[in-house]
Design brief:
The chain is of the alpha/beta class. It folds into 2 domains: 123 residues, Rossmann fold, CATH 3.40.50; 165 residues, Rossmann fold (3-Layer(aba) Sandwich), CATH 3.40.50. It is built from 12 helices and 12 strands. Strands 8-7-6-9-10-11-12 form a 7-stranded parallel β-sheet. The longest helix has 21 residues.
């Protein structure tokens, strides 16, 4: 059987070597498609593969139509909105993610971004400290809990909102439970987003929520670009010259925001959350192991389409 590793943004060399070792020991033929220029390259490459490992690559209905032998797609990372789940299900293809493998990398980045903005992007201007400030965390999963733990180690107070967790679970994770978005935003000097891009969340971080934040607050987005109402963000920044926004998923209106608001806005050149050697290796190896386990035992523990 054939497994294709398809990554426009390649894995680290050590990750590729580890993935190949796991798969080849399992008796699989491994093909590699890196830094491909067009989506058509992926469509062509999947024609005869049985399994597919991706990162942020888009597995569309067109890709699935072309992949006549495909049985499983594993997204090396937590988010999976780059895969057309409905089309995969219609084609009988199992889709999995690798939750937790990139979590520490994303959490460290979120904390680094807070300090970067607190220190005015490391310019000579007088900054502030994060110690004693309140961090609100929207979604308290693997990444959210790690962000909270690191923030507490820096002397921050931590609050969290997650509709899928009980107060007891949030408290056990080290945060004070909050019961509404209004309460979370109004009480957070820093607000760290960890929500997925779903129909219910796309554009949900809007003017009304952002302007509820306290004076001098910073919104930190290491989640998805789509969850931000960009027009609402721009309006909030215009009306509240004390608010800052930092993200590793650049908004479409980034140039406008930076021209208008200067050091109050920052976006990394590309999505950086999982861009560490450790996260690369962890997620890639997990993806390979899940494929081997799926074909050997039928294990669908991390399946995200039903």
């Amino acid at each position: 059987m054939k497994v294709l590793i398809a990554t426009q943004k390649p894995f680290a060399a050590a990750a590729v070597a580890g993935i190949k070792e796991i798969l080849e020991k399992g008796g699989y033929e491994v093909q590699l498609l890196e830094k491909y220029a067009e989506q058509a390259d992926l469509v062509k490459a999947v024609a005869d593969v049985n399994a597919l490992i991706i990162r942020s690559d888009k597995v569309t209905a067109e890709v699935l139509d072309a992949a006549k032998e495909l049985k499983i797609v594993v997204r090396a990372g937590a988010g999976y909105d780059n895969v057309d789940l409905a089309a995969a299900t219609a084609h009988g293809v199992v889709v999995m993610n690798t939750p937790g493998q990139n979590s520490n990398a994303v959490a460290e980045l979120a904390i680094a971004m807070m300090i970067f903005m607190a220190r005015t992007q490391f310019t000579p201007a007088t900054g502030s400290e994060v110690q004693g400030k309140t961090l609100g965390i929207q979604a308290f999963g693997n990444v959210g809990r790690l962000v909270g733990a690191k923030a507490k180690a820096l002397g921050m107070k931590v609050k969290a909102l997650d509709p899928f967790l009980s107060d007891e679970q949030i408290a056990a994770g080290g945060a004070e439970p909050v019961h509404s978005l209004d309460e979370l935003y109004a009480g957070s000097d820093y607000l760290s987003l960890h929500i997925p891009a779903l129909p219910s969340t796309i554009g949900s971080i809007n003017y009304d929520l952002i302007t509820k934040m306290p004076k001098g607050a910073t919104l930190v987005n290491t989640a998805r670009k789509e969850v931000i109402d960009e027009a609402g963000l721009e309006k909030a920044l215009e009306e509240r010259p004390d608010i800052k926004y930092v993200t590793d998923v650049a908004p479409d209106n980034l140039a406008v925001l930076q021209e208008k608001f200067g050091l109050r806005v920052f976006a990394t050149p590309k999505k950086m959350g999982a861009q560490t050697a450790e996260a690369n290796i962890n997620a890639g190896l997990a993806a390979a192991r899940q494929i081997v386990d799926y074909f050997a035992t039928g294990n669908t523990r991390f399946q995200v389409n039903k």
